[in-house]
Amino acid sequence: MASFTLTATLPKFSSIGATVVRRSLWSSRAFVTAAPRPLQATAAQQDASEAYDKASDAVKQGTKEVKKTGEDMKDKAASTTEQVTQKTKDVASKVSETAQDLTEKAKQTVQEAWETAKDTSQKMKDTVVGKAEESKEDIKEHAKIVERSMNTKN
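RESULT FIELD:
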């Protein structure tokens, strides 16, 4: 009969938690389960919430640091790229100037060589023509001598 008394009084304590009454033919025992105490659950929940907030803040801070580091690296890379680009432009400009100077010098050298060749050709022509004139005069003189000598023998 004790089991009936427990079963009858349990509905009065239903605010405690879920109640399971189990009766079997062989045993008249009743099993009662109770929900965890609300104060304990709230304290554990608060601890978990605080730990979550701390972890969330740490992740946000880490993300900000990584982002800042990435931006710094990007700025440094951009600065280095600009410096390399400027130096490349400077070197290209110097190479272009040097190439122009070399082209001008080569042009001048070719012009001087052409003038020298023309002068040499003219000197050779004058020399050959002068020798030819001398030879022509010599031949005319020898021809006159030969003609006189042939006329005297006849």
